[in-house]
Amino acid sequence: MAVVAAGALLVGHASAASADVGDLVNCTQYPTHPACDVTAGGPGGSGGGGGVPECMSPEGLPVPCYIEGKGWYDGDWCWWRLAAGDLLADLISRLGEPQPPEAWFTASCGGPGNWNPSTMYALFDVNPFVRVLAEQAVRRLELPAPRIGLNPSGSAPQVTFVPTWLWIDPVVWAARSANASAGGLSVTATGVPVSVTWSTGDGQSVTCGPGTPWTSGIDPAAASPDCGHTYTTASRTAPGGRYLLTASIAWQVTWVGGGTSGTEPALTSTASVAVLVVESSALTTG
Hints:
By secondary structure, the chain is mainly beta. It has four helices and 18 strands.
């Protein structure tokens, strides 16, 4: 992108065939859905909805993402729209014909009631507001916490040296999507679960796919074919006499819209359950 003030002749080009809007939702640090604050939008908006979303100024003030006749917000008190009419003709005559998919945009800066009379021009190959919509769409993703499955079941004690099966409920292990739209543009963000890391509470961890649910008829002493853990020490010395078993799903997040696409840093959602682990001899002898 090149931003050009009125009368300036310096022009550059920016490729945005693939864009990355950065670490929008720090779900690595705050992994559960409520802490991630993943529902975004303006008044009356809803997670995954298509109404005009609410954007934020650098000072943290709410501003409209789209203003009729002014264009799309860029995150820094300017609204951009496609140049047209005499302005477009003047830009082409002085600065050159844009090569598709590039196009000339013009900005209105300052905000409602305080518009800056100076004119800013830019040559974009993607509408700059696509990045703002991508942020909104990612924030609207509702990534569920894991539903932990294990065998022996959570209500029964795990037994040392007997394999514990670990899995995530298939209802959770599915892609989630959300979109944000304004001013004729729409961006869809999609989160896909790619792995789950289990912290077993005894100082060990294992990373798997969704795992295989244990079903009646399978040998209880058999190990899971793809995701499990075998405890070797009882939990009696752990806080509360139980190990905290934690599952953290890593979600691959991508977005597409406005003629471009992007990939976000992986987000996570986490859940835990306290498990009692007893020695096999204790279970046998009662």
